[in-house]
Amino acid sequence: MHNSPANLRFLFALLTHEGAPAAKLWESFRQNFSRDYLPYNHDYDSAPTLAIEQAFQSCLNTIVEILASFGLSNTAVGLLPAHERPAADESEQEHFAPKRQALRSKAAAAFQQFNDQQKQIYTDVLQSILSPSPHTLHLIQGRAGRGKTFLLQAIINNLRGHGHLLIICGATGLSAATFDRGTTVHKRFAIPVIEQGTETEAVLQSTMRANSPNARFIRAATAIVIDELWSLPRAVIEAVDRLLRSLLDDSKPFGGKPLIGVGDPRQTAPVTTENTKQATLENSFITSELLSNFTIHELETSQRQSRDPDFSAWIDLIGDGSTLSTVDLGEMFDITVMPEDAMDFLFPPDVLIQPARAVERCMLSPLNSTVDSFNNIILQRLSSEIHTKDARDTIKDGENANELDVQAALETLALIPHVGVPHRTLLLKDGQLCSIMRNLNVERGLVKHARVSIECIYQRSIKVKLLSSGMTYLLPRINFTFQPKSSPFVIHRCQFPLRAAYATTFHGCQGLTLSRTVIDCGTPIFAHGQRYAATSRTRARTDT
């Protein structure tokens, strides 16, 4: 395997995060990790001893930075001490200091492109943050394609360009990765993740310590930004509120810290176990007493569908609808009953072989089973060699059970798909478009639903290219723990965190702007906002 030391260092950190013995790996492979730190035209046989030691130390310092992005420290995983890292707030300021002039220029250029409403919101939000004001909580919202992210990025660039420390986070890893130094709400505020289907009566509480580096970072920040706020359960937002009141010793909502939320309440709501309208409402931020403290800024003018105003108005009607009554998609889109027609429309041969173009297109369905079927059909059209990758499955506490019973259970449960977990057997090809199935590293954009292309398939790792950045990474098998429905067993699965991404669910398409889509109409819509999310991904009706 020929891979750069940078790729190997990231793989080392990822394996360590998954529980691999860091000290043993370091001793075995430190020359491979650090060879790019040797003096030019030297190798380990010819370099002076001092140069080798310096290379090891520089490499270790870099690895410490990577481990920190996973929430780990070198001493916690058994590595030698490295140079002391600056505090989080100091590190943040050092990162943006050389970029401030460019950020201010970007903000000014964006302002010139704003419509009148965007200019007013931009001005109002900045004035309330920079000048003493009782109105420090803002919610920028609007239907799909209204330019929410464009406006938010300009506000962020302005504040960072003038030296302000910001906390940028998103409801998901994908939304957080849109912004430099973004992270998820759960990670930033140490909010426990409650698995879907888990029932709990306890009030959700942050686990952050008041004297921790993260707490210091929060106190030092000028403002907090939460993207896709409406995708967060009410309990999570209220847990953030309680944490901030405690850390800042201030009884005002969110401890008086300025907060900018962004999102669209019309899109798919947080998932609930019951999946009823009442349960969805109770789980939504719309029923929280905190909402009344926010100044609402509603963006009205469509940016995404600006060249097709009739299409934009039709989507707005769907988004504003209060019922799940039937909508005739045939009045706006071409209809086909032939899967081959859908495939040819989305992925003709010249597009299929170019992941950078294929990522802009997608088949959308409410069902994971339909998504898998379409992905498998498209995979067969790729001409490259197919590779089969089997997972390593074990049953929790299986050593106490009969071996034959355990094996029989594993063979049966392997056939049952589980949401958010890769299949027991993966079929992969070079050049294939995939999505990542878990947040691996938000700072680098390796997050759930991020699109990658497969560059090379090895025996124990897969080299992928992150399409949003062009960077390549080595991914190992990682651990997933889940309990299949109607099963008493808890399964540990070690598998590559990849899924083909030529199709996705209505929920998974939120936030995407696509050049072409095909919408599966064969299955009834069963959750709030699904129909709206699916129909609003493209710029014109002819693209769907």
From TrEMBL:
Catalysed reactions, semicolon-separated: ATP + H2O = ADP + phosphate + H(+)
UniProt record, GO biological process: DNA recombination; DNA repair; telomere maintenance
UniProt keyword Hydrolase present: yes
Keywords, alphabetical: ATP-binding, DNA damage, DNA recombination, DNA repair, Helicase, Hydrolase, Nucleotide-binding
Cofactor requirement: Mg(2+)
SUPFAM superfamilies assigned: P-loop containing nucleoside triphosphate hydrolases
EC code: 5.6.2.3
Span of domain DNA helicase Pif1-like DEAD-box helicase: 113-324
Example GO molecular function: 5'-3' DNA helicase activity
Pfam annotation, one family: PIF1
Family under the similarity heading: Belongs to the helicase family.
Protein name: ATP-dependent DNA helicase
Organism, scientific name: Tilletia caries (wheat bunt fungus)
Lineage, broadest ranks: Eukaryota, Fungi, Dikarya, Basidiomycota, Ustilaginomycotina
